[in-house]
Amino acid sequence: MELTYTGKPIRVSVAEYAYATDWMMSRLVSKKLKKNLSVEISLRKIKGLNGQTEVADDRRIPRDFIVTVNPYLSRKSQLSTLAHELVHVKQFARGELISDMKGTMQKWKDEYIDHAEVDYFDLPWEIEAWGREHGLYMRYIKHLC
What we know:
Elements: E1 2-7, H1 14-28, H2 31-35, E2 38-43, E3 51-55, E4 64-69, H3 75-93, E5 97-98, E6 105-108, E7 111-114, H4 124-144
Parallel strand pairs: 1-2, 2-4
Antiparallel strand pairs: 3-4, 5-6, 6-7
């Protein structure tokens, strides 16, 4: 996996972002897939969000991503946000979530969903990301001890 960084780290070092990203992605995708991914960690504040994942290439099943995390959050919140956003990287990279639809339509596995018509917390890709965020974070912290 190719990792790059933009922005200035505050409570979590670039070295820890690198380690945590590699560790978490190893639990989310196969070694072969991970080897073919490119992830830019962008440390900047986004109004109203802790983080976000953007697809950075035009392939139907993308391999290049920008994961933005607000560096002003606590260390715990930054690492939890990183875990959440890396679940989205997994979803896009495995073709589970496809968002190249017109307008507000996205494809989740075999189902087309208009995300403008569904509450954020009821979107299946968010249910998975929120569900796995805490577990990934807790396993990562336990791994460090």
